[in-house]
Amino acid sequence: MQNPILKGLSWAKQPPILVSPSSHTLPSLLIIGRKIKLKNNNNSSNFKKRRKKEWNHPHRSGSGIRGGKYRAMPCSSIETSNITCGGGGGGEENGRFRNFKLNESTFLASLMPKKEIGADRFIEAHAHYDGRGALIAIFDSGVDPAAAGLQLTSDGKPKILDVIDCTGSGDVDTSEVVKADGDGRIHGASGASLVVNSSWKNPSGEWHVGYKLVYELFTDTLTSRLKKERKKKWDEKNQVEIAKAVMHLDEFDQKHTKVEDPKLKRTREDLQNRIDILRKLADSYNDKGPVIDAVVWHDGEVWRVAFDTQSLEDDHKCGTLADFVPLTNYRIERKYGVFSKLDACTFVVNVYDEGNILSIVTDSSPHGTHVAGIATAFHPQEPLLNGVAPGAQLISCKIGDSRLGSMETGTGLTRALIAAVEHKCDLINMSYGEPTLLPDYGRFVDLVNEVVNKHRLIFVSSAGNSGPALSTVGAPGGTSSSIIGVGAYVSPEMAAGAHSVVEPPPEGLEYTWSSRGPTVDGDLGVCISAPGGAVAPVPTWTLQGRMLMNGTSMASPSACGGIALLISAMKAEGIPVSPYSVRKALENTSVLVGCLPEDKLTTGQGLMQVDKAYEYIQKSREFSCVWYQIKINQSGKSTSTSRGIYLREATACQQSTEWAVQVEPKFHEDASKLEELVPFEECIELHSSDNAVVRAPEYLLLTHNGRTFNIVVDPTSLSDGLHYYEVYGIDCKAPWRGPLFRIPITITKPMAVMNRPPLISFSRMSFLPGHIERRYIQVPLGACWVEATMQTFGFDTTRRFYVDTVQICPLRRPIKWESVVTFSSPTAKSFAFPVVSGQTMELAIAQFWSSGMGSHETTIVDFEIVFHGIGVNRTEVVLDGSEAPIRIEAEALLALEKLAPSAVLNKIRIPYRPTEAKLCTLPTNRDRLPSGKQILALKLTYNFKLEDGAEVKPHIPLLNNRIYDTKFESQFYMISDTNKRVYAMGDCYPNSSKLPKGEYTLQLHLRHDNVQYLEKMKQLVLFLERNLEEKDVVRLNFFSEPDGPVMGNGTFKSSVLVPGKKESFYLSPPNKDKIPKNSSQGSVFLGAISHGTLSYAKEGKNPQKNPVSYQICYVVPPNKTDEDKGKVSSSACSKPIAELLEEEVRDAKLKVFGSLKQDTDEGRSEWKKLAQSLKSEYPKYTPLLVKILESLLSQSNIGDKVHHYEEVIGAADEVVDSIDRDELAKFFSLKSDPEDEDAEKNKKKMETTRDQLAEALYQKGLALAEIESVKDEKASALGASEGTKDLDQTGDSALGSDIQSDLFEENFKELMKWVDLRSSKYGTLSVLRERRCGRLGTALKVLNDMIQDDGEPPKKKLYELKLSLLDDIGWSHLSTYERQWMHVRFPPSLPLF
Asked: What are the backbone angles phi and psi of residue 530, rounded to the nearest 5°?
């Protein structure tokens, strides 16, 4: 009989969109996904960019998927069922696994591995130490409290104590306060009328309101599903309306066989327009999602929250505000809601700042729930699927920002640490990270150190998924001393069960993609290993109960759950919990994976063993909780302090070196000075793992203040390749404690490339699944790029290989090139990638751990590397804006090379200073550090204008591309237009965003608790970078003579460089006429310059496609002086001084008149008096009459609308009467001489007069239409209230309407003489005219054309007019759609940061 729990398993049907581990990020999430076409060349990276953490950005997975961009992401990967992945046995059974057969129990156990780390044995022996009493903070993408196994602990307590969105991505501004009317109605922030439930307690009667576009709370995957389902329903409604429209047109055609009458023609055109509009909208449909109204109030005890979600429901009787069951902050009642059955998305709420901020918490990917399930899930019906610590409780700290596709932000990380301390958590698990510039450095690391050392939290994190090359561990998990970094291990059971491989490996091994140490400062990097895959719970919106994911993201919570078991035991037995003692127990009881010393760089100290660690903790409970900080400096050198010894370059391996090692015992901050620090004294026996290479003193007496000793490392007799050693200290009095501290020593002795041309080959390398070959090569001086060939032999089924290279340079992220290559049959593949001259390069070739399983065929690989290089005296070139060319000197140091320079400028970067800087203290407790300091925020505002639509990317050189290795806390920006519509958001890894023409505001939000740091940033320079269109790309020329750019001769094309002989040429600055117009002074054009080409490729015009290119920039010089500036026209000079003076006085009066405000009755009265005075003083003066009309139009708070519009009509008539229309028409019927200065000036004057006339006629037409509309409304209201009307009054009203209609038509025809009435400026009148004639389809078409042609930001009035037309026609599905878009186009305010 099938186990009922199996019915919930849908690991064979996962969505084809999750990601795999990323390099520059540390994904731990390999999701089963569709195949991606791979490119094998030019895939280099300097670890500068982060990868998104969403599912649809594949990087590297069990399927061999790897991507080019690096963005921080969860350290995990999700795998598809058609991909074979697996690994070895653990614990005491880390041995052979041949001829193993799964049964139901072992299969279920393999889905949630626990045997590998001894957790099952431990719980079996200590049933009540199953995590009870342990509280874990899950720093991740958010945890779904409704997911399977995450409701209760094994002892019946609530599983999740709090759910927090630390990023602010779900924040809603609820600062607007409203009161309910007598019927219990309130005005919602979205504009909807809402009915509150009469049973809700609200002593103050104040309701805080806000709204949220619901798609902003959902993942891209969920949004995509909802859009498809909603589009299907929308299409059905639209098709009904199309059918109706076609039927009406058909009926018209049958009734009117010949259409000759103009009115009938326009009627038919209107019917056809309706059909066309419906069909066009079906093609352009873009669902921005429903809007939900939020209401917050205080019931006298707690803050309450309710939502109106009718827009999500098919039945609008469902989802009403009054029917919502109010929620409060999750930690108070631990209740959650679901938006609708359609989305099945769970959410919780938290209220901050006295009801002014509402946080709606949803997860930003399934990752966090999966992680939480591995650590703590409890399934009483199927214990084999329990998480590692089913008795543990947790809090969910969402650090993956939904606005950024689930990337972490500095804000999220800091708030998560604050929450973990506030809740008195024991453990933190964080399965996120990325490569870093500096290890064990940065603001976040500083805060983590405080949390660990002062508050005794144990911090566990994934090491990363950027293997198999060395030095690929990421921050913070693999690079921070205070954090336990975890590598990913796969056992034979996991391979056979969870990964369903045909034949599992004989023993356990590390996943191929698991990141390796050491860090660039020599620390081991990986602390321990744990199972890196599981079938665990996922959020309800995924519409499945569980999912298979693998990666170090899964290894970290496995280890964290194991540590929770230890904490459970320690608390029960009264043993003080300390991250120092727990870490030592884990490291000293782990089981080695692999038999070589250097395997520690892959697995850390080995596979953790909970039961053995527990015994160690019991035995060592009387010892002080101490962490031994290691600081190492090379004797005689002023190099920076490191945490290990890492000899990587050739010069470091050619002689013995002496190193000063400082060992400093660190106690927790609350340690007693007299009882713990003063008595501390340990006799340490020092051991070297190989005295022939590493020599150290024999003994050391260690006290609280630490000791320094020297060690000598002699690598001279070592063979080429990787070597790993340790110096470790043993307690003489208690040697059973194992190493108290370790000093890792990694030596990668590179082989030199002596032959010329520089070529090196590795032949007959043998590969089986999971096997890795590493080669270390000293890149020859003068080499810039590599051309490599990989030839495979002797296998049957398809083979997948990872090919990685890594070089390490000071103060740079490891320079990594990578490729995943698949061989379906024996063949050869070529690669090309850049290298750094003179630096050691690791070449790591790995057969993917599950590739070729069951084949028993060994794969033979030949790998050949040829180094190429062209050395130049200038790598990055700066053209300073002058006409002088730049001289470039080139030489080939290795072999003959073709010199074929190419350079382009294809980007522009424009600098901006902030127009406003506001510094404030953040108001909520979530922004108060454990030290008590309140975090401050600096908001910088930048304004910019785009003359044409473009893709722009903000660039802040000081802050960008660093999240962990920076001392600044966080940054976040948003770009909005003049309507407050947000077009782009981003953090330290900005993306390009497509913006239409218009004016924009960029707001940058910086946070820190140190006001001095923020004060220094108030004038922070920001660049806006945009790609040039292909037509604007500037291609630069090269010359063999210094005067070539001016004379136009001596063009340099190409030549062959001979080693030992230099050649020079000149790079010409761009021609000034090639520089795009409107390029402001100080802007910088960016591009690339290359000098060589691939030996097997054709010459190309794009230097960025060559293997090596360098940045080139051109600084825009000052614009040429305007020769016409300062000239005075002859006509102005001919006027008498008295006349000129009189004109100046008149213009000054008009200026003052135009500035008068009419906010009050007194102000309006003064304005009217002055208007009459000026009209009598300057009769028929058109500019004055235009000012009067403009002032009337700008009035607000209008009481009597009819009277106001009659005043507008009168003012417009005065403008029209002041203009000689016959003279104007006569002028425009003749052509003027463009060479005649006075004629041109007169032309401009007449054009201005024509525009004034047209504007007056236009405003008059609008006023006439408004009067008609107001009177119709009054008549309708009167008819509805009285039922009947006096016949005489009706007649008068009808007569007035006819007169009004005649005036409108007369005015319309007059305006038609002067302007195009279908243009975006005057088209509104055409729309109103068509509407008055009942041709709503034509009116809507004209309006749509106006909106389409309008190059400026959308005008709200036009869209409001569109909504009223849709309502009049009766297309409710379209009006609903447009109303949702109104919240996107015209939000009342900018969203919160």
From this structure: -155, 165
Rounded distance between C-alpha atoms, residue 1323 and residue 1258, angstroms:
10
Quick one: tokens of 976? Answer: 């909005």
- Buried residues in 543-562 as b, exposed as e (16+ CB within 10 A): ebbbbbbbbbbbbbbbbbbb
Q: State pLDDT tens for residues 602-644.
A: 999 999 999 999 999 999 999 999 999 999 999 888 778 999 9
Q: What is the DSSP letter of 67?
A: -
Single-letter amino acid code for the residue at 661: V
- 349 has a pLDDT exceeding 50: yes
Give residue-wise pLDDT tens across range 413-450: 999 999 999 999 999 999 999 999 899 999 999 999 99
Both structure tokens of 1062: 């230099």
Instruction: State the DSSP H helix or E strand holding residue 601, giving kind and residue range, or none if neither.
Output: helix 600-603
Region of 489 please: left (phi>0), alpha (psi -120 to 50) or beta.
Answer: beta
Instruction: Identify the sign of the CA torsion 185, 186, 187, 188.
Output: negative
∠ Cα 1035 1039 1043 (to 5°): 115
- CA 904/CA 237 separation, integer angstroms: 52
Sign of the alpha-carbon dihedral angle for 1097, 1101, 1105, 1107: positive
CA gap 660, 662 in Å, rounded: 7
CA nearest 780: which of 840, 721, 720?
Answer: 840
In this prediction, residue 54 carries a pLDDT of: 31
- Model confidence at 35: pLDDT above 70: no
Type of residue at 354: E
Residue 924's Cβ-count burial label (10 Å; 0-12, 13-18, 19+) is: middle
Q: What is the mean pLDDT of the chain?
A: 87
Rounded Cα–Cα distance for residues 693 and 670 (Å): 41
Q: Which residues carry out catalysis?
A: 140, 367, 553
The C-alpha atoms of residue 184 and residue 1314 are separated, in whole angstroms, by: 53
**Helix, strand, coil share (%) of the chain residues, nearest 5:** 30, 25, 40
Q: Which of 766, 866, 762, 748 is nearest to 807 (CA)?
A: 748
| DSSP designation for 750 | P
Report the greatest alpha carbon distance in the chain: 119
Closest among 1214, 1306, 1203 to 1252, alpha carbons compared: 1214
The SS3 of residue 618 is: helix
Residue 881: DSSP 8-state: S
Q: 286: buried, middle or exposed (CB in 10 Å: 19+, 13-18, 0-12)?
A: exposed
Q: Which residue has the higher pLDDT, 142 or 1186?
A: 142
Distance CA 1068, CA 885 (A): 5
Helix (H) or strand (E) holding 557: helix 552-572
For helices 552-572 and 579-589, angle between their N-to-C axes, nearest 10 degrees:
120
Most confident of 358-362, 1318-1322, 1331-1335: 358-362
Rg (CA), the chain: 37
Q: How far apart are CA 583 and CA 605, in angstroms?
A: 11
Q: What is the pLDDT of residues 286-337, one digit of tens each?
A: 999 999 999 999 999 999 999 999 998 877 788 999 999 999 999 999 999 9
Contact between residue 1037 and residue 904 where contact means Cβ atoms under 8 Å apart: no
Supply the pLDDT for residue 609.
Answer: 98
For residue 1273, what pLDDT is reported?
73
The type of residue at 982 is V
Q: What does the block give as tokens for 1155?
A: 């500035």
Q: What confidence tens digit (pLDDT) does each residue in 1009-1062 have?
A: 999 999 999 999 999 999 998 888 999 999 999 988 888 888 898 899 999 899
- Residue 404's SS3 state is helix
Instruction: Decide: pTM greater than 0.85.
Output: yes
DSSP 8-state assignment for residue 1367: H
Cα(534)–Cα(991) distance, rounded to whole angstroms?
A: 33
pLDDT value at residue 629? 96
* Residues facing 490 on adjacent strands: 509
